[in-house]
Design a protein that fits this description.
GO terms for molecular function: hydrolase activity; metal ion binding; nucleotide binding. The chain is an alpha/beta fold. 23% of the residues lie in helices and 28% in strands. It starts with 12 loop residues before the first strand and ends in a 12-residue tail after the last strand.
């Protein structure tokens, strides 16, 4: 039996103008002065990102992390079954808040290697149908593989994909079902529940090539103000929003769009009629947050977010009383259940076991050899061969594509970020998963044109990743990395620190972390000469960054010279297959180092001299 203790605040709260303490549904005949009561339990997942099993495909072992979380829908299914048994299946809904079909080799394989557009059934569709989801909102990563793949996935589901603000480019009408209305019976009276789906507008930037001219993405608050009144007009007693948008306000793309990336809190505060929000996108855990409405005095709106990858299941309980001919929400609370407390559901696991085995064989297939080991463990604070490898392949692909164009003579530089601290390519045989582990996102490659001044501005922006120091150290890695963003005030993640390199050792720069942000790039040279601000360069860059992700300067307006929609991870794999041998001595360059007032900074774990 699973312990289902509530975590996250119980007690009296105000909902829709009525106040009472926690209450369970009443059974049996009503007393003359007793209102009819109904408890609805809504279960929620989000950001499952292609995880069915508790498995790390890049390590080919059972998943584990420092908190000993477990992941995957097979374990979520066990939790769902337990909650349905406890609460009553007839009084339970199961929702998801998006980012389902991207994120693991399992998801990639059935999008690209044996694509569902060719007749395969997506493992996530198999699992979610078996678990019995009622609806799922679209996430931004649903658009990564294009509309054809997304529509194929939709056709394989037994439940609707919801997205009220994924609208037709011309007409503005939603191209997916905007909401779902479910009707329950309590004491012979109908209880109508509306479920609205919304996605972060950042899709317009991050997957511009897949959606431009076809799909627009109005703001979350703006579209909810259109749709929630429709649900209320249809008689909905309760409105729940499955919203793929973080609860902490802000945007990774700055002011590139008029609508914020993370708007779940604003939705709760500013849209009348919303009772609860299942939050997604941010990959954080919100057990329970009762947000005061700014438009309905005294009302609290429930927010919860169940972390990511199937680590948690949110459990929302809504108590409604039938008062004067209508249902009134009088109490709402939430808690989360941890997937590491249960075993996997054998039925769900069996449905996907063959797919899992096929993908394990794929990721473990040998595609080449490497003459010496490369690791990304220290890439966030020192120049490493692992990042040089990515930049070498990217720059080479862009340079080859520009042959015969007016820009073929321009020097090509490249940017890459330390996505995965655990990534490593061993000496000896190299498998798909070894190479894929260096690049864990499904980004595609572009080439843009920059001036020398823009190169420096880009590097200055990236250098904000480092904390300010007063001397050369030595320091622990966390003492110099992960500074607070000067624009958002939040910690800058590793993936928003870009390292610039190229095909050879022509580029060099120092990052002086004793200097203020914006004044840190020193000794910036190309081919041994100080970079001319007016000089022209081609920058190999990923689609997330080029479209504004991370807010780096100059990228969204820079001329695009190359965009063949080729995935960078696949480029790395194909390069390894074609070359047969990865020899780091052929591409390792010494492009950058950390200094403090000109003196090399010593970071624990770095190679001698701060290089490799």
């Amino acid at each position: 039996m699973i312990a289902l203790a509530v975590v996250g605040g119980a007690g009296a709260a105000v909902f829709g103008g009525a106040t009472r303490a926690d209450a369970a549904p009443e059974k049996g005949p009503l007393k003359s002065d007793q209102p009819a009561r109904f408890r609805l339990t809504v279960l929620g997942t989000t950001d499952t990102h292609g995880n069915v099993f508790n498995w790390d495909y890049f390590k080919d072992v059972e998943y584990d992390d420092s908190a000993h979380n477990d992941i995957g829908l097979a374990k979520i299914s066990t939790l769902v079954t337990a909650m349905r048994a406890e609460r009553g299946e007839a009084n339970t809904l199961l929702l998801d808040a998006g980012d389902t079909i991207q994120g693991t080799p399992l998801a990639y394989y059935y999008a690209k290697v044996d694509p569902i557009t060719g007749g395969s059934v997506h493992p996530m569709a198999k699992a979610m149908n078996a678990i019995g989801y009622d609806a799922a909102a679209l996430g931004n990563h649903e658009y990564n593989y294009g509309l054809e793949t997304l529509r194929a996935f939709e056709s394989q589901l037994d439940f609707p994909l919801l997205s009220a603000n994924s609208v037709d480019w011309a007409s503005g009408a939603p191209i997916f079902k905007p909401y779902l209305i479910r009707t329950f019976k309590a004491r012979g009276k109908a209880v109508k529940v509306g479920i609205l789906g919304l996605v972060t507008p950042g899709v317009a930037i991050w997957d511009k090539a897949n959606v431009e001219g076809q799909v627009r993405f109005p703001g979350i608050v703006e579209q909810a103000k259109v749709m929630v009144p429709r649900l209320k007009a249809a008689g909905c007693d309760l409105v729940i929003v499955s919203c793929h948008s973080g609860a902490t306000p802000g945007s990774s793309y700055g002011d590139a769009l008029p609508f914020p990336e993370n708007a779940s809190r604003q939705l709760a505060e500013e849209v009348a009629g919303v009772d609860a929000v299942l939050v997604g996108h941010a990959h954080v855990e919100i057990i329970e947050n009762l947000v005061a409405s700014k438009v309905t005095p005294g009302k609290k709106v429930l927010l919860t977010e169940p972390l990511k990858w199937g680590m948690r299941l949110s459990v929302m309980d809504f108590d409604l009383d039938y008062v004067k001919g209508r249902w009134v929400l009088v109490d709402a609370h939430s808690h989360v259940l941890n997937a590491n407390t249960v075993t996997e559901d054998p039925e769900v696991a069996d449905l996907v076991r063959d797919d899992h085995a096929i993908v394990r064989t794929y990721v473990n297939s040998v595609i080449g050899t490497c003459t010496m080991a490369m690791s990304a463990a220290t890439a966030r604070f020192e120049d490493t061969a692992a990042i040089d490898f990515i930049n070498h392949v990217q720059a080479g692909a862009v340079r080859a594509a520009l042959v015969g164009t007016a820009d073929e003579s321009l020097p090509v530089l490249s940017i890459a970020a330390p996505f995965n601290r655990d990534a490593a390519i061993p000496a000896g045989n190299v498998t798909v998963r070894d190479v894929a582990g260096l690049y864990i996102y499904d980004n595609t490659l572009l080439g843009i044109r920059f001036s020398g001044a823009q190169v420096k501005a880009y590097l200055e922006y990236s250098a904000a990743f480092f904390k300010t120091v007063t001397g050369p150290g030595p320091y622990a890695p966390d003492d110099v990395t992960g500074a607070l963003s000067p624009t958002t005030g939040t910690t800058i993640p590793d993936y928003n620190y870009d390292i610039m390199g190229g095909l050879d050792a022509s580029l060099a720069y120092d990052i002086d972390i004793a200097k203020p942000v914006g004044q840190r790039i020193a000794n910036l040279t190309y081919a041994g000469q100080a970079i001319d601000p007016a000089a022209q360069f081609v920058i190999a860059i990923n689609n997330y960054r080029q479209s504004g992700g991370g807010g780096f300067p100059g990228v969204t307006t820079a001329p695009v010279l190359y965009n063949a929609q080729v995935e960078i991870r696949q480029l790395l794999i194909d390069w390894t297959v074609d070359q047969g041998v990865i020899d780091p001595t052929t591409f390792t360059t010494y492009d950058w180092k950390l200094v403090a007032n000109g003196q090399p900074v010593v970071v624990e774990g770095a190679a001698e001299g701060g290089r490799h």
